[in-house]
Design brief:
Length: 468
């Protein structure tokens, strides 16, 4: 017989010694950043050891209790919060062990509850670099970062979370512990189970620890906010600088002037970081490694000016100026909520198709909603554009959002036609499950469902997320 809610809460308390079941105490675990989802949890379990996680999961599997793994609760597609209201959230926030930091060997092993910003500091203190940077790094945790295969601004040079992970430890649906904390760069002994768990959004196992890659720390950075007339010019500039800087070109972000104006209007940056007004800007960063000459970026921009790709540029001459430029980029998502309602997309296309995506998508949205204000920005260097639209000036936000489905459909049709993806770095969660069924190859979906059935036959791990 299914357990009652009271029996579930008592069972978890018996296993762990404590459980959160009061709505007020659970509020911070169920209120996700975009406030799209409002379903309460049955309870929140906060295990303190990996062995506790194993006991909890094995018990839940035996009793068919659905579990939602959660890290820092920064996900943007609802993968980490309840869907049905009968789930128990399993928070990994207390798994904070630092098992090893070995800069000479180029890796560190951290438990799932370590905050991403702390991981960056640990690497820095060891004289190395952990290059995963996302806007929520002050609260996102390693387990969640890996479970969602987070991207960020360093993907161009270093890859996403999956590329930065050498091995994982994870509790499977029956409570067994997968001990895959390898530090090997090469291991060709069958299926890559680590890559199966990374990006699975907690539907195949609960990541409890990971071995992460470390890199040599740059001696300095060359940073500039560069005026360009069009996304086509930005694309040509990207190719020109890639040829000059190679792997030292560590960031190439696209920002619209509209975004800068919103940031200034709402006081989210202290001053305009641009050298002058332009329709578009590229935030570009080149890492200067020890022994390499200065001026790679400046020389490249000078050549771009001669070629007519660049009209003006602000080159950061201090850490404060660099921080201002990055603040403009990192606050673009938040400022849109201050301006009004916004329709958002996390999409990717082949890099060469980014200008077409922006051009065709802006026109399509304008036909559907006259006066709509496009705010496409993001990772030009890897093809991932956060193609957002702010409500027309003075419009009613609720009425604007009532037409969101038509805008979504138009953008996703263009993305599909250009060979892109409807989720570049945020994942599927519960927000995009129906859309995934529409756009994913049926054979791929069958393979994914077969893996889910094999590893979680009772369907207790994050049910209703990613696959339905």
């Amino acid at each position: 017989m299914p357990l009652t809610n009271q029996q579930i809460i008592a069972g978890i308390e018996g296993l762990l010694g404590h459980v959160l079941s009061d709505p007020a105490r659970m509020a911070s675990y169920v209120e996700e950043p975009r406030r799209r989802f409002h379903v309460p949890a049955l309870a929140v379990a906060v295990p303190t050891t990996v062995a506790d996680v194993q006991k909890l999961v094995a018990w839940a599997n035996d009793n068919r209790v659905p579990l939602i793994p959660q890290g820092g609760n920064t996900g943007l597609v609802g993968g980490q919060v309840p869907l049905a209201g009968n789930e128990v959230i399993v928070s990994t926030t207390r798994l904070q062990g630092v098992r090893e930091v070995n800069a000479e060997a180029g890796h560190m092993t951290l438990e799932a509850g370590v905050i991403l910003e702390q991981a960056q500091r640990l690497a820095d203190e060891a004289g190395a670099l952990f290059p995963l940077h996302i806007a929520s790094q002050g609260s996102a945790r390693i387990g969640g970062v890996l479970s969602t295969n987070a991207g960020g601004v360093g993907v161009l040079a270093y890859g996403n979370a999956r590329a930065l992970c050498l091995g994982v430890e994870a509790v499977l649906a029956d409570g067994r512990l997968y001990q895959g904390l390898s530090s090997l760069r090469k291991d060709n002994t069958g299926y890559d189970l680590k890559d199966l768990l990374v990006g699975a959004e907690g539907t195949l196992g609960i990541i409890t620890a990971a071995t992460l890659k470390l890199f040599p720390k740059p001696e300095d950075y060359e940073t500039a906010l560069v005026n360009v007339a069009t996304p086509d010019d930005a694309l040509q500039l990207f190719h020109a600088l890639s040829e000059r800087a190679g792997g030292r070109l560590t960031a190439f972000e696209l920002l619209p002037r509209f975004g800068i104006e919103m940031l200034l209007q709402h006081g989210m940056i202290e001053r305009d970081p641009a050298a002058s007004h332009a329709p578009w800007y590229c935030l570009i960063e080149v890492s200067r490694m020890r022994g390499t000459p200065e001026g790679t970026l400046v020389d490249g921009l000078a050549a771009a000016v001669d070629a007519g790709l660049v009209a003006d540029a602000a080159v950061a001459g201090s850490l404060r100026e660099r921080a201002l430029m990055w603040a403009a980029r990192e606050n673009l998502s938040e400022v849109q909520s201050r301006e009004g309602a916004s329709i958002k997309h996390d999409v990717s296309v082949p890099i060469a198709q980014v200008p077409r995506l922006i051009g065709e998508g802006s026109l399509a949205a304008a036909r559907l909603v006259p006066g709509i204000r496009p705010c496409p920005f993001g990772h030009m260097g890897d093809g991932n554009i956060h193609f957002n639209f702010t409500q027309p000036a003075g419009a009613d936000g609720k009425a604007f959002m009532a037409g969101a489905d038509a805008v979504h459909a138009a953008i996703h049709e263009i993305v599909a036609r250009l060979g892109g993806s409807i989720s570049a770095e945020h994942g599927i969660g519960q927000l995009k499950t129906a859309l995934l069924k529409q756009v994913k190859d049926p054979v791929a979906l069958d393979m994914m469902r077969a893996i889910k059935r094999a590893l979680d036959p009772n369907g207790i791990l994050n049910p209703g997320k990613v696959l339905v």
